[in-house]
Amino acid sequence: MLSVLEKFKIDVNANAQIQRIVKGWNTEILLEEKDASASYFLDVKDGKIDSVRQFEKGSDPDHQTKIVCDQEIMQGLFEGRVNAIRANNDGLLEIYGGMSDQVKFDAIAIILWGIC
């Protein structure tokens, strides 16, 4: 999963259209896989994903947004195979946090993969 997130980071940070939309966006996103022992953290600073970290569950860093789902859904979400809105509506994905963070995340998915 870490390699998937690193590729996502590179793709987001290199995309000029995404950078225009998320300029000034600062947030911390916790990614918790229900069926795995590790969780992940994305630190977004001024619209760029500054860091991707893996850590053991239970040692959660401070975060503004949290995404919780099974490992397969999480990987599909960051590879562009899973629509976050549909997965959330189907009960496969839980998103906690501000609506503006969710909208920006959805915009990234639409631009990178055409998912809406």
TrEMBL record:
SUPFAM superfamilies: SCP-like. Gene3D superfamilies: SCP2 sterol-binding domain. It comes from the Bacteria. This is SCP2 domain-containing protein.
